[in-house]
What does this fold into?
Amino acid sequence: MKRKKQAQQALSVDVATIWRRMMESRVLLNERIHADRNIASKVRVSVPLRRPGFLVPPISWFIKPRERKTLQLDPLGSEVFSLIGACRTVGEIVDRFAEKHRLTFHESRVSVTQYISHLVDNGIAVVAMPKETSKEDAAT
It folds into this structure.
């Protein structure tokens, strides 16, 4: 029974540490994207694609792959995109989003982190986690 409680405490500490590190991480935009805003305040993002390795001559003479893919972001996604452009931490983006839309921190965190995940999956952004500090470094 004692071991089970110790394991649960260790797990809860690890989860708290992971969430804290995630909120301190920075979201950076891909330097090779092209973004433009249209009249309806939606952002259109063009992302370069990698050329498949099997496309070598003579195959590449006949098959021309797309060089870029274009994504249309909705108004809320456009807002998250513009907050990312200011190079803020995930926690700051979540706070600003919660203030503007009158949401709780946790509601905002779910929406923003899911949208950031979508941007990362499409090659628009990357998440830079802060360095993990060891217990010895924290003591000094």
About this structure: The chain has a mean pLDDT of 81. The chain has six helices and five strands. The longest strand covers residues 43-48. The longest helix spans residues 2-24.
